[in-house]
Specification:
The chain is of the alpha+beta class. It is 22% helix and 28% strand.
Length: 99
């Protein structure tokens, strides 16, 4: 009885409040990323987007390992959020979304 009460006390300390599950389908080319909220959590947009500061140099398209940047738009379904486009943009036209 004492052991169960201690276990119950410790379990209550680890309540998940906001959780999101990232699923990567590695069987598809390019890799597909899906986000699922668990419990009461909401899906917060993460990743990157190309802003109107873009000079259309295509450096982001060339460096993207997923090849998910086309016509200066990032396909969020395939984006792995690696940040290479963000780091290599010469005019800081790529903005990080979310936290």
């Amino acid at each position: 009885m004492f052991i169960l009460m201690i276990a119950d006390m410790y379990l209550k300390l680890f309540v998940l409040i906001m959780v999101k599950l990232n699923f990567f389908d590695l069987g598809k080319e390019p890799i597909v990323r899906e986000v699922f909220p668990l419990g009461n959590s909401e899906v917060i947009k993460n990743g990157y987007e190309i802003t109107d500061k873009c000079i259309k140099c295509k450096k982001c398209e060339k460096i993207c390992p997923q090849k998910c940047i086309n016509d200066f738009k990032i396909n969020q379904t395939h984006c792995l959020h690696c940040g290479l486009c963000y780091e290599k943009c010469p005019v800081n036209a790529i903005r990080k979304l979310g936290n």
